[in-house]
Amino acid sequence: METLSEYVNRVMKEKNLKALDVEARSIEAGNKITDTYVTNIMQGTSSNLTIEKLLALAEALGVDKVELFKVAAGIDEHDETWTLPSLIRAIQKLFNLRPSEIKAIKKILKIK
Q1: pTM listed for this prediction
Q2: Structural contact between residues 66 and 108, judged by C-beta atoms closer than 8 angstroms
Q3: What angle do CA 69, 66, 43 make, to 5 degrees?
Q4: Which of 8, 9, 44, 83 is most buried, by CB atoms within 10 Å?
């Protein structure tokens, strides 16, 4: 299973992006994530990732938000089905979210 660090490094290499490029692209998209924060994610040293930062990262990298969330949550699914263990992990992570993060997820999933 690919870690978030590995995923971000791979995507950035494929798209020939540097951390400063990701920061600039995030600003253009209206969601700022600093080059230092991106570098910490790339090195696997980032702590306390927020939904807002993951959204900004997905936008800046030009990747699917749900795919990035699955990687960040450690959900390894090759087919688009949920298994009981992956569903339990996702629900456990949801219980630890702040209201603003839950609102962001509901917006992505188009839930009112």
Answers
A1: 0.69
A2: yes
A3: 35
A4: 8
